[in-house]
Amino acid sequence: MKTPPTDYKVDLNAYFAKLGYTGSRDPSLETLAALQLLHQKTISFENLDPFLNRPVAIDLPSLEHKLIFSERGGYCYEQNLLFAHVLHRLGFTVSNLLARVLWGADDNAITPRSHMLLHVRLEHRPYIVDVGFGGNCIPAPMVMNRETVQQTSHGAYRCLLIDGEYWLQVYTGSVWRNMYRFDLTRQQPVDYIAPNYYTATHDDSHFRHSVVAARIFQNGRHTLRNQLLTTRYEDGQTDQTILQSAEAAQAALHDVFGIRVPDRAAFADKWQRLARGWEMGARPAVREPVQVVAQGA
Q: Which terms does the record give in the GO molecular function aspect (predicted)?
């Protein structure tokens, strides 16, 4: 895979038009918060390329074409590399980071550094910014304060400092759950080539064998995990539907997440081959609070 070029300039006007953003382009907290939320409302998290055995290119021209000019989304490297580029162009001070995902793992687990996030320094304060962790992604800049709970429009989060590492947690309604942990070692675009290649191609990557999508809307979040389509509302209520066919899944991806499946025949074929195994874990529920489904990269 080729090294992502650093001199390419994404069409910012097209990006803002896609988001429907007409506000200030000054590098302020208000601009950052507005773009972070709008990005996640507009450009869905999804993994169709790994699922369909298609390459995931993370050079800027490819990201621009896929996330801005096509009816597609992407996972953490795609989403956050594009967002970092936009923020740099607007004058923000941004560093790229790598995290160890802890969702679904023991607190002491040593998972690989496989999730990209951003560190933004603004008005002498450090923030964590992330538009690529799927169904649990932080919808607003996260203040790096180990004692403060940050209530956002889509959930409560906190960032703890434990033994020299930062631990990002989300409140699920009853307990705090770890999302990922990280330090502030700065990464360059070339540093994401190897983990992106592993995530997109290795047989152990869950993105190769699952369909995952997520999108924020005004009062909640939509998530898709294989056959299970979930809408979580901010009042704690949940709607869930089991999608019975590949055609129903493709329709949901388009109508709910704004995603056009790139190869419908290949999608239908793989869906049918894997669906029986998925059925073992899919259980519908109607208007009941449920725990968040892990969907991060």
A: acetyltransferase activity
Q: Name the pTM for this structure.
A: 0.91
Band (236; pLDDT cuts 50, 70, 90):
confident
CA 206 from centre of chain: 15
Residues in the chain, overall count: 297
For residues 210 and 249, the answer to whether their CB atoms sit within 8 Å is no
Give the whole-angstrom CA distance, residue 56 versus residue 76.
11
pLDDT tens-place string over residues 151-168: 988 989 999 998 899 999
The more confidently predicted of residues 39 and 285 is: 39
> Which CATH architecture does the domain made up of 199-279 adopt?
2-Layer Sandwich (3.30)
| 20 Rama sector, left if φ>0, alpha if ψ -120 to 50, beta otherwise | left
User: One of 39, 49, 85, 115 is an active-site residue; which one?
Assistant: 115
Distance CA 173, CA 159 (A): 17
Told to judge if 130 belongs to the known catalytic residues of this protein, a careful annotator would answer yes
The pLDDT score that the predictor gives to residue 279 is 67
Catalytic member of 39, 49, 76, 137:
76
| Intervals of CATH 3.30.2140.20 along the chain | 12-191
Name the active-site residue from 85, 119, 130, 159: 130
